[in-house]
Amino acid sequence: MILASGCVELMSPQEMTQLVADYGAFTDELKQAGAYVTSQGLRPTTAATTVRVQYGEALTMDGPFAETKEQLGGIYWIDVNDLDEALAWAAKVPSAKFGSIEVRPIWG
Fold first, then answer.
1. How far is residue 108's CA from residue 85's CA, in Å, rounded to a whole number?
2. Span 2-103: which CATH code?
């Protein structure tokens, strides 16, 4: 699984349009290679709700769990042979140019 993060709030409308186009091309490349499983963008952390259970009671709080400069922007679930192949794809994620990309295997 590829987790993409970055700080898109600082982008101009033109830069955002280009980023969306770059992600479309990246997704098409994954699909053509047969590595694509699914992907999904996430709303900003301002739309988050954090849940904690204390003494058996669920407590909710609006907003993110932690304040950070980068936030998880979305995920790509890919099917590849090994970590090296996953890392090669991660290096092609458009937001790798200004953010960070985390690669994680799934359980199972």
1. 19
2. 3.30.70.1060
Express each pLDDT in 27-39 by its tens digit.
Answer: 999 999 999 999 9
Tokens of 62: 């609006």
The backbone region for 40, taken as left when phi is positive above 0, alpha when psi lies in -120 to 50, beta otherwise, is beta
Q: What is the largest CA-CA distance in the chain?
A: 50
pLDDT for 18-66, tens place per residue?
999 999 999 999 999 999 999 998 888 788 888 999 999 999 988 766 6
pTM of the model: 0.82
In angstroms, rounded to a whole number, what is the distance separating the alpha carbons of residues 53 and 59?
Answer: 6
Tokens (6 digits) for 84: 């090296």
Residue at 77: amino acid letter: W
